[in-house]
Amino acid sequence: MLITETIRFFVLHHDQVLKATVQHLYLVAIPMVLCILIAVPLTILATRIQKLYPWLIGFSNAMQTIPSLALLALLIAIGSGIGLVPTVVALFLYALMPIIRNTFVGINGVSPEIKDAAMGMGVTNWQLLWMIELPLALKVIIAGIRSALVGTIGFATLGALIGAGGLGSLILRGLSMASNDIVLAGTLPAMLMAFLAEFLMSRLEILLTPRGLRTRKG
Amino acid sequence: MLIGPSGCGKSTTLRMINRLVEPSSGTIEIDGQDYEKYHPVELRRRLGYVIQQVGLIPHLTIGENISFVLRLKGVKENGRRARARELLELVEMKPDLFMDRYPSELSGGQQQRIGVLRALAHDPDIILMDEPFGSLDPIMREQLQDELKRLQLNVQKTIIFVTHDMDEAIRMADRIVIMKEGRIVQVASPHVILQAPSDDFVANFFVRQRLAWQTIKIPVREIMSRSMATIPHQSSLAHCLEEMLRQGSDQMVILNEHDKFEGFICLEDLKGVSEQGLEMPVNVFPKVYKEAIPPEFTLLNGIQAMIIHKINAIPVTESDGTVVGSVSLSRVMELLRGAAGTSVVAPATGGGENGDPALEKEVKGPEC
């Protein structure tokens, strides 16, 4: 039975599964954190200098359009070597688009009259960003991060192809050995991780929505 | 009060004052000082600013919204809350009920009240208002206008107010600035503008549309016809009828022995009276109307009286009963047509020499 075999594998090789899971988490966390730290401020800059945005969204769109495997291969071909670095770079590039798009839409979507009134009351540019725009855009930004995150968790399994480890390595091993229990040992934690990320992020989204905005739904 | 057709630059003028728009040439002075010596942010925190779309900050509570500028100025939380409560009480909104609510939970009128309070929070000397009541329904608008006038009596601020609503300008303004295509056409008090528009544009834009409304608030003294057919009370109905036909009058006022108003008779009511009946004296005729209005009554009062008593004209009498004239519905129609029509009609065509009081003082006649 597949299920019992899979459970047996989990029990016997829990250290392997755990290690692969932790690796996987790194593979997801590093590009995501980089992406948030770089893309969000850059996009905020683009909301001030609107000429930047077409370049930004154009680039990130192009990155997202490249098939994921092709992107990995491309990075190797242009000489980034194999392992963690090209995978992180690829995942980073892949996660850009939803984050950039949502950050821009979120901040640009703050209604002009609210900004006008705030400007008229004498907020500085920073205050406008921190006190008005970011709180109001946060929900949309988080939604962007959420879809980037879920995508990254899936894409990260491909990292194993170029030796970055993670849950993908279990899947590859299982496939090459034609043993489905090992495949499942890789896919189940990855799926679980994706579902969990989706769930936690949607909670976070609600949690970070300012109360004044939540009541409006009714 | 800045007023003018859309696109004439009223809002831009306002936004230049708080430097949301920079003037391409010229300077703006506040209290005799070139305002460019203030930093824009600094300057704006010294002014109040209210816009049509209100623009309350949705993720802040009402209390936080009201005291937002205080927060920018670094006032402590306690001070801010106290000030917000104080202001809410000023417009009779219960602080306990509203302080911690969010803008989305308020009606449009309530939101704009908060918008106005927000501009008052830091006690600025000058408040800029850009069509603040433009998106409210007419009843709510009038209510808020009255409230603002009342507030203004309390706080005594310079309010620069943009509107395209002439009624609003007349109701609220001490001085009206009429703008057209970026230029100022006339600056004057509402009375002067109504009386002496500087050119056709002002006349057309303002006076004509305004006058119909203004006209019905004129005291009847100004517009009544001064000739009134009268007849002594001992005359017969036949004589009365004869006089009516001779003078071409639909009504005949009956005077008592002291030549004072006793009542009046309408031509219409005489039609069914028999030969014999015509021999009776006018004062015993059963259909004698006793209604009359004093000259201080507004035209509106007169119209109301005519409608209530279903008559086409009504005599005007002094308090001692002296008959001074009459107002007819046809005269009213003529006036209103003139007011809405082609040219500026002086409100008192009958007694043009005293047109002023009609416009300048509110006539306090009892309501019919």
Biggest sheet character of chain B: 6 strands, mixed
What's the count of strands of chain A?
Answer: 0
What's the mean pLDDT score of chain B? 81
**How would you describe the shape of chain B?**
elongated
Order of helices and strands of chain B: EHEEHEHHHHHEHEHEEHHHEHEEHHEEHH
Q: According to CATH, what is the topology of the largest domain in chain B?
A: Rossmann fold
Compute the number of helices of chain B: 17
> What percent strand of chain A?
under 5%
- How many whole angstroms does the radius of gyration of chain A measure? 21 Å
Structural class per helix/strand content of chain A? mainly alpha
Protein name (chain A): Binding-protein-dependent transport system inner membrane component
Transmembrane segments (chain A): 25-47, 68-97, 148-170, 182-201
Organism (chain A): Acididesulfobacillus acetoxydans
Pfam families (chain A): BPD_transp_1
Structure in words:
The complex is a heterodimer of chains A (218) and B (368). Chain A has 218 residues and is mainly alpha-helical. Chain A has one domain (11-210): MetI-like fold, CATH 1.10.3720. Helices cover 82% and strands 0% of the residues of chain A. Chain A contains ten helices and no strands. The longest helix of chain A has 35 residues, at 14-48. The radius of gyration of chain A is 21 Å and the shape is elongated. In chain B, strand 12 (313-317) and strand 13 (323-328) form a beta hairpin. Chain B is an alpha/beta fold. The two termini of chain B are 34 Å apart. Chain B contains 17 helices and 13 strands. Chain B folds into two domains: 2-210, P-loop containing nucleotide triphosphate hydrolases (Rossmann fold, 3-Layer(aba) Sandwich); 221-360, CBS-domain, CATH 3.10.580.
